[in-house]
């Protein structure tokens, strides 16, 4: 039992390993300058190295012509230890959706998915190697947790994706300066279970170049299955990210089965924390809801969900239902199209803004809930 008298949850872990070596992206600009001084170089070299990484998307010393030639290889080795090695990439949607399989320094495997939509490019990134939340309908959750990813490992997914875009590797290229504009923490792992490193990465994403990527906070979505204390901590961060709660059921009886963490923090507690995020930040909350055939797709559950959301006010939330993406070996499958339509229509009728989410990457096991970092696929 925990200190508050509630049961402690034990989430599966395969093995524990050390964290990767410190990378430039793990450090603030001031910390980079301090490290350069330790290497016997002037502080301004930190800015040059940061520009190469965050703006030119390179760690190749041969491309750093503004650095002393005799020190380039040494600096690259010290500031850019190899974090993500591409193992495989799979493409669909005429090359507009790419799933990357990455091998980390310790052999762990993670995946990220790059998607081009009309007018924007989105990258779905991972924050943990595996996941410890044990949600039975999610391939990642069934794999268990290996370890948290570092700040730089999280960020390097974006930098490498930007390099692919710059090289013309994403289908439908429109202009030479385009890059990832939207980030969704909906890849492998529970982001708020790796809170410190995830938030360090978010702060680096929104930091002006060359300290960071210079992204808009509103284009970053941080999701959770409902770690209430971490949601409340996020509320106090004063960063205007989009917050998404993966709810999947409005009633505790079913959600206890679908989302094991619900045995610790119940539906109403998670919704209260989500609503408080809206009140504090003014940012509308997203409710993610995977529609599972004969499990959570009943009209009465749509009505219960609407009642709970409307009880907290109007205009604070947007529901994103998505038919469950298939996972090999799962006993559950996606809702039928007519049932999906009825569920969405009922929420709309009850005044809850609802949009059926576009599913990308199913053909390459790159859609929500399908990421399993299987090197054999």
From TrEMBL:
Annotated region (Disordered) at 1-23
Q: Which reaction does it catalyse?
A: adenosine(2503) in 23S rRNA + 2 reduced [2Fe-2S]-[ferredoxin] + 2 S-adenosyl-L-methionine = 2-methyladenosine(2503) in 23S rRNA + 5'-deoxyadenosine + L-methionine + 2 oxidized [2Fe-2S]-[ferredoxin] + S-adenosyl-L-homocysteine; adenosine(37) in tRNA + 2 reduced [2Fe-2S]-[ferredoxin] + 2 S-adenosyl-L-methionine = 2-methyladenosine(37) in tRNA + 5'-deoxyadenosine + L-methionine + 2 oxidized [2Fe-2S]-[ferredoxin] + S-adenosyl-L-homocysteine
Enzymatic class = transferase
Q: What residues form the catalytic site here?
A: 111 (proton acceptor), 368 (s-methylcysteine intermediate)
Q: Which PROSITE patterns does this UniProt record tie to the protein?
A: RADICAL_SAM (PS51918)
What does the record's miscellaneous section state?
Answer: Reaction proceeds by a ping-pong mechanism involving intermediate methylation of a conserved cysteine residue.
Binding positions for S-adenosyl-L-methionine per the UniProt entry:
189-190, 223, 246-248, 325
Essential cofactor(s): [4Fe-4S] cluster
- Which gene does this sequence derive from? rlmN
Q: What is this protein called?
A: Probable dual-specificity RNA methyltransferase RlmN
Q: Which family does it belong to?
A: Belongs to the radical SAM superfamily. RlmN family.
Quote the Gene3D superfamilies the UniProt record gives.
1.10.150.530, Aldolase class I
Pfam families for the chain: Radical_SAM, RlmN_N
E.C. designation(s): 2.1.1.192
Q: Which residues of this UniProt protein bind [4Fe-4S] cluster?
A: 131, 135, 138
This entry's comment on the bound cofactor is:
Binds 1 [4Fe-4S] cluster. The cluster is coordinated with 3 cysteines and an exchangeable S-adenosyl-L-methionine.
Establish whether keyword Metal-binding is in the entry: yes
């Amino acid at each position: 039992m925990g200190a508050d008298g509630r049961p402690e949850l034990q989430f599966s872990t395969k093995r524990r390993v050390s964290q990767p070596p410190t990378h430039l992206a793990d450090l603030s600009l001031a910390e980079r300058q301090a490290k350069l001084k330790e290497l016997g170089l002037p502080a301004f070299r930190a800015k040059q190295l940061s520009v190469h990484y965050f703006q030119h998307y390179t760690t190749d010393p041969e491309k750093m012509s503004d650095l002393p030639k005799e020190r380039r290889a040494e600096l690259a080795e010290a500031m850019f230890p190899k974090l993500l090695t591409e193992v495989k990439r799979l493409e669909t949607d005429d090359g507009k959706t790419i799933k990357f399989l990455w091998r980390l320094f310790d052999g762990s495997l993670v995946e990220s998915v790059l998607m081009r939509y009309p007018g924007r490019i989105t990258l779905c990134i991972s924050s943990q190697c595996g996941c410890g939340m044990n949600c039975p309908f999610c391939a990642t959750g069934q794999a268990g947790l290996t370890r948290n990813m570092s700040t730089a490992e999280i960020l390097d997914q974006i930098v490498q994706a930007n390099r692919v875009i710059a090289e013309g590797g994403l289908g439908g290229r429109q202009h030479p300066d385009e890059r990832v504009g939207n980030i969704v923490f909906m890849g492998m792992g529970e982001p708020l279970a790796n809170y410190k490193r995830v938030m360090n990465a978010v702060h680096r994403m929104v930091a002006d170049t060359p300290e960071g990527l210079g992204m808009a906070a509103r284009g970053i979505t941080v999701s959770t299955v409902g770690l209430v204390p971490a949601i409340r901590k996020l509320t106090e961060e004063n960063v205007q990210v989009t917050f998404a709660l993966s709810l999947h059921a409005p009633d505790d009886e079913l959600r206890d089965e679908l989302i094991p963490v619900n045995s610790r923090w119940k539906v109403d507690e998670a919704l209260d924390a989500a609503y408080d995020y809206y009140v504090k930040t003014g940012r509308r909350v997203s409710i993610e809801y995977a529609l599972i055939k004969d499990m959570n797709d009943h009209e009465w559950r749509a009505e219960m969900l609407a009642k709970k959301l409307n009880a907290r006010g109007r205009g604070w939330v947007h529901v994103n239902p998505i038919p469950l993406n298939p996972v090999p070996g799962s006993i559950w499958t996606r809702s039928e199209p007519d049932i999906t339509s009825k569920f969405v229509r009922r929420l709309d009728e009850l005044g809850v803004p609802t949009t059926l989410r576009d599913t990308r990457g199913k053909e390459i096991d790159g859609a929500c809930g399908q990421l399993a970092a299987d090197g054999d696929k």
